[in-house]
Amino acid sequence: MIPTATALAAIAARLAEAGIEEPRREARLILAATQGVSAAGLLLLEAVDPQRFEPLVARREAREPLAYILGRKEFWGLDFAVSPATLIPRPDTETLVEAVLALGITPARVLDLGTGTGCLLLAVLSEFPAAFGVGVDISPAAAALAAGNAKTLGLANRAAFCAGDWGAALNGTFDLVLSNPPYIPGADIAALMPEVARFEPASALDGGAEGLDAYRRIIAALPRLLGAEGAAVLELGVGQATLVTALAQQAGFNATTRADLGGVPRAIILTRCK
Ligand SMILES: C[S@@+](CC[C@H](N)C(=O)[O-])C[C@H]1O[C@@H](n2cnc3c(N)ncnc32)[C@H](O)[C@@H]1O
């Protein structure tokens, strides 16, 4: 055992050396998780066991994302299990939940294409207690992860998850279609931070040559999947608002955008042109 303060300082120094942006905060989170206490509880621990934290610190030094190491990530105030099968939920994606709430509708049937952890669908279901949702992902492991999250969050009776290629296997229409598709141009992925480029799956990131492949597929499916009064809310990558708006308008949709906290148009809201 070593004194907690000594361990904290040593871990933070190693993480800083590895280029981690918030080394002390992450050191605290790793220590707390491995000693089985909360971050506040760590203050009361006089000594910690290095054997427990060492393997996790080594993984983080190698730039594996903290969320994969701890296996959890918060989104919209809800706790999600995460795994390398899919993207780690991002705060920017909460802009889509805000956009849904701003629509002023009460959706009964919600579809989430590329559901990943299920974070978007489950956050929206948590806001609409009478809604039922379907989440689809090309990765069976992601669909299973999302189903587990629905169960943990007490939403399993209102959510179904399946593996599939966007909406290809689905029949029927939805009041709300959500998607945070892969939208990074393929050639840009290698230059992203190591946590993303080396650890998050290409299937969750790679949007093809211009980053627009998934939008083309999803927008083409919307006329069939969206009810007459329905709305689709899709996440946008930086600088994609104009191009995705053009794709949506060509397909017969009105498009508006909503900015994230950084002022970037992050969500595009599509409704049928009347
Ligand atoms: C950017 S991630 C978003 C995950 C989650 N919705 C979120 O917001 O954190 C994109 C997701 O789309 C899934 N995906 C990629 N291609 C797909 C396809 N053809 N059909 C269905 N899902 C697909 C990926 O496996 C990944 O989970």
UniProtKB/TrEMBL annotation:
S-adenosyl-L-methionine binds at residues 114-118, 137, 166, 180. Its EC number is 2.1.1.297. Residues 109-183 form the Methyltransferase domain. GO terms for biological process: methylation. It catalyses: L-glutaminyl-[peptide chain release factor] + S-adenosyl-L-methionine = N(5)-methyl-L-glutaminyl-[peptide chain release factor] + S-adenosyl-L-homocysteine + H(+). It holds the Pfam family Methyltransf_31. SUPFAM superfamilies: S-adenosyl-L-methionine-dependent methyltransferases. Residues 7-71 form the Release factor glutamine methyltransferase N-terminal domain. Keywords: Methyltransferase, S-adenosyl-L-methionine, Transferase. Substrate binds at residues 180-183. One of its GO terms (molecular function) is methyltransferase activity. Transmembrane segments: none annotated. Belongs to the protein N5-glutamine methyltransferase family. PrmC subfamily. Methylates the class 1 translation termination release factors RF1/PrfA and RF2/PrfB on the glutamine residue of the universally conserved GGQ motif. This is Release factor glutamine methyltransferase. It comes from Acidocella aquatica.
